[in-house]
Amino acid sequence: MKSYGFDIISAWETKTGHRTEFVYLLAWLDEQTMRRAWDEFRADEEWKKIKKTTNAQQGDLVGSIEERTLIPTNYSPSIRRTMVDSD
Question: What global pTM score does this model have?
Fold first, then answer.
């Protein structure tokens, strides 16, 4: 993910019964950059091979994917950072 410009801000895990949910927050310069990076990452042959091998060994680890684009409100405490800020 890093080689495609993903800026992982934080990650969380929740467990309910037999289900584990993994959530991560990413920062992007803009929506176009985000869409391009996701498209390139999903098309990456190395990633496809890793996913196929992992699924064969462990079973399907991903039940569903929910994507959300969060836009900060003007009354929210500021947690925004950009890829430029993290360099």
Answer: 0.69
